[in-house]
């Protein structure tokens, strides 16, 4: 079985009957469904031709959101972190209380983006009409809450505003705006301009985008601002400097770290972030660099055919590794998001190769 088929098999075999994708079936703290992780996993299934799998996820997410419609409506009326929807749910669609950041916006923007990708790919107007009320609710929700401080995609720094989160919201609203009439579309476009201006005014230092409005460091999730959410053109000097900072500070011996002061499991190299940088290279026609990162990603498959969340060959904070092993056990493996990004990188690279041949 080739690596593509192996990643697809891992994802399909760990999709719950409800449609939810379990983030990691063997890691107790990840035995839930995240809208962010799940949407990227569903997107990879769309790329792999698994329409039914992706559709089941989007319907699960819509059902889950509808269970908490009143909460979302409260946030629309009175934007407050107290009313923000949760980031993760049980496979049955219930909120999960936890010891780390719960209130996030990135998953909901990502869900809108992915839903539109799915509908567009399969031309499924029936599904679009069925899920429109939920998409409309989340559009209103994000239009009214995007500037609130909330936890970043790593579920940290809840008192800050994060460019990668804004990018996910931006990408979702940019994609979904075509579902609405001209008046509503204009409202969305006005907020999109405000989002980008916020990032430029509050999250740029030394001509590069920072981890947050309060942390002047690179973060590999800033790659989202180009692919897939298209807030910045890859040739924009500010984005180019952002990528340069990620390469110089977070890319080491083939793999990409999250951010310079990461201590989670010692701050290892993340499979999905390495694939993300590879996608950026593929999108910008740096094919050799993309191939090298794909080779590194595929070298991380275990003998069982799994991709972990992160590997420990090069730790930023090795003194912290043992404490996390003692606290939570070995790092998550498999991580479905890692397998999803492997598939996405393969598709981006193949698409880029075809453009080169034209």
TrEMBL record:
Top-level division of the source organism's lineage: Bacteria
Domain GH15-like: 8-286
Membrane spanning residue stretches: none
Name of this chain's protein: GH15 family glucan-1,4-alpha-glucosidase
Organism of derivation: Ammoniphilus resinae
Source species taxonomy: Bacteria, Bacillati, Bacillota, Bacilli, Bacillales
